Structure formats: C-alpha cells, structure tokens
Amino acid sequence: MTHSLLPPVPNELITFADSEALAGALAAAVATDLREGIQARGGALLALSGGTTPKRFLQRLSEQSLDWDKVTVTLIDERWVAPDNERSNARLLAEHLLRGAAAAAHFLPLFRDTPEPEDALAELERRFAGLPAAFDAIVLGMGTDGHTASFFPGGDHLAAALDPASPARLLPMRAPGAGEARITLTLPVLLAARRLYLHIEGAAKREVLDAALADPATQAPVAAVLRQAPAPVRTYWCP
Fold first, then answer.
1. What are phi and psi of 145, to 5 degrees?
2. What whole-number distance in Å separates Cα of residue 210 and Cα of residue 153?
3. DSSP-assigned states of every residue in 71-89
C-alpha cells in the first residue's frame, strides 16, 4: 500500500494491489468512523454508493464488529426502480451489506413507490430532516464519465445539486448517461460528512480522476466535490 497526493488538491490517494485488499482496508476504516460516532453521539450515520464496484467492500463491511443496531445506513443516490429490481441500489445493500449481524442496522431507503422521484421528495426531505446534519462516513464511487453520486454530466438538476449553498438535501436527477430517473444527496450533504471517501478501481477510472483533477477548467462533477471538500478526501484505488 502506498500513499501519494493527487495534485492540485490535497486528496489522499491510497493504492492497493487488488480489490480484496482494498475492500478489507476500506471496511476497517469505515467501521472505525462508525465506532467513533457511536461512542461520541450514541449512534452513527453512513451513506453508501451502488453499482458493481462496492460489492466486495460491502461484504467486508458487513463482517465488521460493530453495534449495528446503532448504525443508520442510507444511499448516496438511487435509481427510481423498485427494491426488487436488479438495478436497485437498495437491493445491492440488502444482498451484500445488511446481512448477518449487520442486518440490525437501520436502513433508510431513498426509493418510494411513486411514479417519479419528485412525488416522494417532500417525504424524503422530512425523513432526512430528522437525521443528524453530518454523516459519520460517506463512500462515493465514480463513473468513467466523471460522475459521482448522481451528479451526471448534462443532468437536469446538476447545477442545483452542486450548489454548495443549496438548502436541499436531496434532488431528483435525469441525464443521458443515467438510465432511469434518480434521486441523489446534494453537494452540501457530502461536504458536511465527518469522513468522505472515494472508492474507484481500474486504470480507466484512475485516468479519468487524474485528468479531472489536473484540469482547472474541468466540468467533471467528481472534481467539483473533491475540490470543495473541507478536508482531504481519502481515495481508495486498485488497478
């Protein structure tokens, strides 16, 4: 494992030989954040990404020794599909994280059984208003188009979602590369996290990330997050 900096912003890059080593280390780090939250505040709040990359990490996280009944887990973003749909991020968490002892965690889904995400937005905002203002840990992913969360290039609410002064905690998102309509946490929620991680794997994503951070004029949404984070983002990467 090696450490280096991704110029020009002080985001910490932690490199691993393979995805198994990465998954174990990231799970241990997140578990430490959750234990600290439980000790300090009596409970911990975690937001996670979907997709295929985090499966092994979610499995390793489920094996961590924690007071899982004191942990609230939600998603950073969700496709507007039913939880039994194979593209549902809630289904991903149910299959790979919320099992064994980790099944005791409180899961807050982003999907509601409404035709469009806008129809559920007010209810979800009320639910999130009852949570602590700051997540103990948020683990972002990234696509090869530079999107993170559901901050897709060309997204219909991208500017609002990336507004650091936005009062909204959640926004709907539709974009050419997004497939289904989605709902996503907004930038202010991400930046308020006590610990913010980025989990990427493969040479292609590393190239996208390096290019985005090296170009001050980049429009890659992931760069907007990393450059405005108040503390270094821990980027976990393996080839």
1. -90, 5
2. 17
3. EEEEESEEESS-TTSTT-H
How far is it, in rounded angstroms, from Cα 179 to Cα 177? 6
Of all helices (H) and strands (E), which one includes residue 185? strand 182-185
Calculate ∠ Cα 155-157-161, nearest 5°. 110
Q: Which strand (E) or helix (H) includes residue 138?
A: strand 137-140
Residues 190-225 pLDDT 10s: 999 999 999 999 999 999 999 988 888 899 999 999
Q: Cα torsion for 174, 179, 183, 184, to the nearest 10°?
A: -90
Residue 163's alpha-carbon distances to 136, 198, 228, in angstroms, are: 22, 20, 11
Both tokens of 31, joined, read 């578990």
Parallel, antiparallel, or unpaired: how do β-strands 106-108 and 71-75 relate? parallel
Q: Output the CA–CA distances (angstroms, integers) from residue 100 to 43, 95, 97, 137, 211, in the order listed.
A: 19, 11, 9, 21, 40
| Residue 140, CA distances (Å) to 50, 156, 217 in order | 9, 21, 22
What is the Cα–Cα distance from 102 to 104, expressed in whole angstroms? 5
Q: What is the mean pLDDT of the chain?
A: 94
* Helical (H) or strand (E) element with 6: strand 2-6
pTM of the model: 0.95
Contacts of 203 (CB under 8 A, 6+ apart): 239
Q: Which residues of 142-177 are buried (b: 16+ CB within 10 A; e: fewer)?
A: bbebbbbbbbbbebebbeebbeeebebbbbbbbbee
